Predict the structure.
Amino acid sequence: MNSIRHHPLRFKLLLNPLHFLSFGFGSGYMPVAPGTFGTLVAIPVFLLLSQFDTGLYAAILVVMFFLGIWVCGYTSHALGVHDHKAIVWDEVVGYMITMLMVPPTFLNICAGFVLFRLFDIWKPWPINLLDKHVHGGLGIMLDDVLAGLFALVILQLILNFVL
């Protein structure tokens, strides 16, 4: 089934905490641009975690990544579709990577959002290679992790050498 909105178990899926998490707290249910809405959900998560020191932020990010491999794989298997568009936990983690060591200002949050979405949608090499050839929960997570790393590098270059 291509649309989660028409999935016969759509409400039961949200009651399962693993699906709820992989659907980005429900944001993956948006009928258009669920990845963008998943990234929007990441902003309050970033604002919360930005209060911690870099080491703790990074440690939580590692936990979020490994948790994402498990929950995204679980939901993908339950839906019978690899990387269903409603699975957006990978966008949450990708944005959190983008924002690593970035001061939580309005401009930085917006710049990180735009850069991450650009790389997530565009999928330049080697992101597109991972997207096509790595499957399961790891495959769902890896392309967004790499998009987050690309966006992180560009954002850090802008913050440190342009502004």
